[in-house]
Amino acid sequence: MLHGFLKFSDTTSWLAETLASILLYGFCLLMLAEVFSRGFLATSLAVSWEFSSFAMAGVFLLGAGPALRRGSHVRVTLAQGFLGPQGQRWLNIAATVVGIVLALLVLISFWSLFANSWARGLRQSSYTNTPLIYPQALAVLGAAQLVLDLCARTIRLWLDLPAEQPLAKEEADA
């Protein structure tokens, strides 16, 4: 059952990573379109800044869990230097459990915003009048994925499995 959860978490992490990549490319295309529009058409695109900010928030939140899985988050390892291998393992487990609690608080906060926007039909107060549930849904998905990845990390540490999935050689060389 635990291995099934780990496989599920890895799959959803890959999906979140893929969606974050698509949003990043979309963000870049919107900014290039804005530069082109301002430079050659002497006008600004009404949607570029708003949708780009939504996309960038989605990239950060959807990428947080996969980054954890890849070992890309910044860490302070000073305390680990004073501990043996078993102490390091338990410190990692404790830190990851604290991370789960904090990520759950973030998830609850984003869910509350999303549910409020859904119930009230809230929209962005701008030219586009975008329903806020769409960018907030990205935040909820990203926070949920971070919780999943933190839980999977805890299980891997508990079972003494590798907690991070290093980049494949061909990805690292690119």
From TrEMBL:
Membrane topology according to the record: Multi-pass membrane protein
Ranges of residues in domain Tripartite ATP-independent periplasmic transporters DctQ component: 28-158
Stored Pfam families: DctQ
Segments forming a coiled coil: none
UniProt keyword list: Cell inner membrane, Cell membrane, Membrane, Transmembrane, Transmembrane helix, Transport
Subcellular location: Cell inner membrane
Transmembrane segments: 12-33, 45-68, 89-113
Broad class of the protein's primary localization: membrane
Record family assignment: Belongs to the TRAP transporter small permease family.
Cited function: Part of the tripartite ATP-independent periplasmic (TRAP) transport system.
Assembly and interaction partners: The complex comprises the extracytoplasmic solute receptor protein and the two transmembrane proteins.
Protein name: TRAP transporter small permease protein
